[in-house]
Structure formats: C-alpha cells, structure tokens
Amino acid sequence: MGGEASKSGNSAAAKEVVRDHRFDLFLSKVTKEEQPGSEILKPTFVNQFPDYAENLAENFFNHIAQTNINPEHASISLDVINRQQCYQAFLQVQSLTSTQSQLEFYIRVFCGTDGLTEKGVHSLLETAYIISMRTNGTFHKWTEIEQTVIKELAHTIVSKGSQSSALSWMDTNCPNLVAAMHLFFLTNIYRGKDEEHSTNVTNSEIFEGRLLSMTRWWILTSTLPSCFSQSQGQSEQVDGASASASGDKNKEVAEEYHWSILYSSEDHGLSLNRFKHHVFGYRGPTVLILRCDGDYVYAVAIDVEWRDGIQPWGGANCHIIRISPDFQILEDGDNMVVFNDKSRNIPKGVWIGRDSRNRKLHIEEGFENVTHNFQTSRIKCMEVWGCGDPSAKSAQTKQKKTELRDAEKHSKVKLPGHWDENPDKMILDWGGVKVNHAEYAYDARK
Q1: 116, 183, 248, 283: most buried by Cβ count inside 10 Å?
Q2: What are the backbone angles phi and psi of residue 183, rounded to the nearest 5°?
C-alpha cells in the first residue's frame, strides 16, 4: 500500500512538473487568482490582443466557451471561461505543429465544429490576411480588388461543401494560409500583448495599380514553395522556445526580400522583345501574372532564370495556378517552360505546361493572344515579379548597363588605316569632292 501511495504521489508530482508555465504571464493578466476555476471575462481576454487581432481573440474565446459548455447548464453565459479551460486550449494551440492541423483548428474556431459557412470562412481569411500584413510590417489598404480576391477565395473554399473537403483542398492549394496568424497567436500568448508593429508604406505601394494585388501576393506566398516566399520563417514549424523571437525575424525577412516588379505591359508594352529585355538576366525565381478576356487570371511561378530555346526547362518548384475566377493549382513540376524567340523550327512564343500535346498556356509571338482552357483569348495585362533577394535585381541592372556600354562601344566602327592614305579619299579628291575639313577651313579664309 505504501508503495502504491508513493507511486501515486510521484505521478502527481510529475504532472505538476510538466505543467507549462510559459502561459503564466498571459493568464496572470486575465485572472485575479491562480486557481484553476478563476473566471476570465471575454472583454478582459480580448484586451490582451492588438486591435487588428480582436476578431481572432473573440472567435478563440467563443470556441473555448462552446467547447466546454455543459448541456445541463445551457443558461450559463458564453462570455465567461475559467483559467483551466484557457490553459488547456493554449496547450492545444501549442501542439499544432503541421499546417494541416493548423488549418483544421482555425476552421473550427471561425466556423464551429461541424458547419462551413461563407461568413466564417470569409472572417478567417480576412483575419489571417490582416495579421500577416501587420506582423511583417506591411501597411494594407482595403481596396475593391482586395475585397474581391478574399471573397472569391472564400467562395471557392465553401463550395467544397464540408469542413473535411475544404481542409483537403486548402492543404493542397494553399497550405500556409494561416501559418503567420498561428505564429502570431502563439507568440502573443507566450509573451503577452505586443506593442503596435510599425508599418512600411513603401512595401504596399509597389502593388498599387498592379495586376498583382496585396491579397494575391499573400495567397501566392501561402501556396508556393519557400524559394518564392518572402516570409519563409512564417511557414516554419515553431515551438514555444522560439516563438518569442520568430515574430521579429519574420518582419525582417519580409522587409528585406519583398517582390520587385521586372516587367509590366502597362509600363513597357505587350511585346516579346520588351518582355525579354526586362526579364532575362534576372538570376532568381520569378512569378508571371497574366490576365485575359473573361477575367481569367493566371500565375506562373518559375524557380530558375528565364532562357531562350526549344527545349523545355524549369525546376521541380515550378507551378501554374489559376487565380481567378477560381483559385486552383493546375500543374507543378520541372521542364514545363519553352521560350522561343530565335528558332524557326517551332513558332515563336511562350509555352507553359509539361504535356507538349496539351500545354496549359500558350502565349503567342506578338503577346496579343493566349491559348488556355481550350480557348484563345486576348491578353489584357501581363506582369513579371522577381522573387529573389535584392542582390538578384541589382545584378540584373548591372548586367544591363554592361550590355548597353558594350553595344555603344561596338557601334563606333573605326575605318581601317589612315584616312589620308585611303584609296577612297584619293578617288573623291579626283572627283573634286573635299573630304578634309581642314581644307574647307583654309579655302574659307582665302
């Protein structure tokens, strides 16, 4: 008996030891006592988050309250939870180490345990987008295009019919959609309410008037492999020890490696030669954005430098994505790009797709039309964005300047030998043609 009592005591002590005290700072701010049954009011809980994250805090609090409701006491207010319930919910958040588990959890937080509502999904996407922008130091503006993109994506997700189907689709097409929000939430419950993040207006201005809006950029960086992402740290799995430092790291990465515009048909015109001039020589991953009749919008992510030739090229991280009217990864993999401007063996233009008999996209030589989805449409706008670090853009600019200097140098062709001894000068002299400017000046003085 004594042995059993001792074993029971050791078990209780072990449970006490493994209790995670990293939540104590947050819990001490929302409860007056350290007793498990101490009450936490919703306004007090929400107040521990920045203004831009209040929607996340409210939905999370409601999720805790609804999960722990007692059917026998249905009249109990959902605006109150206790310390132990909050602690257990925090442990659950901390255990979400995969993108799939994060997506599943936050869908339930915003939509409930069973349903899949457009309002809930829209709220989830809007909240995840705002938090992602604010935590990486980027100022966002709610323009008409931003709202439309969020609405279209929410509609696509809800059209899957059930939470399990929606989760499967999101895990395939945009797995890191809530990763930044999850990291922010985990960081906040470890170290308490953060000071307001400074904003970087310059970063948002590069998207103004562009086909690639801020929301489209956010969705693409949540979809594409890390070599295209400017906030690679956001998609990394984090534990409690590193969460407090990860937020600052993400902000630095995002500010340092923002996408840069290489080519825009609005600025440079729709032309294969202009495209080639502005895109070639950029030694880093790029994303081509194309819009055509019917409001179709496509994104082509290429993980290697562009080049001319009739042989397919491209690495394993290449993707073709239809952004609008619905978001869907059409194809990914290597050897899916052909850019031909020189060979006469095949028509000039750009082919995108791994199946040579059925390319996903074919941009014709004049860059006026594109064949897609078994139809040919007129191209309205095209952009190419550089996704590498700033040195890639600097190296391209330097290379272009060198090429220009070399072209100017070779354009100045020197005549062979001395002009006075040239037979052509002798023939002109016999014909009475003065070719020596000094002689002209002498005759004028006479």
Answers
A1: 183
A2: -65, -40
Tokens of residue 283, six digits: 């030694």
CA dist 296 and 379 (Å) reads: 10
Q: Give the whole-angstrom CA distance, residue 380 versus residue 30.
A: 54
Phi-psi region of 432 (alpha: psi -120 to 50; beta: other; left: phi over 0): left
Q: Phi, psi (5° rounding) for residue 44?
A: -65, -40
- Using CA atoms, how far apart are residues 311 and 103, in angstroms rounded to an integer? 40
Alpha carbon 249 to its chain's center: 17
Task: Band the pLDDT of 57: cuts 50, 70, 90.
Answer: very high
For residue 301, the cross-strand partners are 287, 319
> Read out DSSP for 26-84?
HHHHH-SS-STT-EEEHHHHHTTS-GGGHHHHHHHHHHHHHHT--GGGTTS-TTEEEHH
Residue listed under structure tokens 């995840």: 128
For residues 97 and 86, what is the distance between their CA atoms, to the nearest angstrom?
Answer: 19
Beta strands (DSSP E) in 277-374 are: 286-292, 296-302, 319-324, 328-332, 337-340, 349-352, 361-364, 369-372
Peptide bond into 325 cis (omega under 30): yes
Joined tokens for residue 263: 């080519």
Mean pLDDT, rounded, for 181-189: 94
Q: Is the pTM of this model over 0.90?
A: no
**3-state DSSP helix/strand/coil % of the chain, to nearest 5:** 50, 15, 35
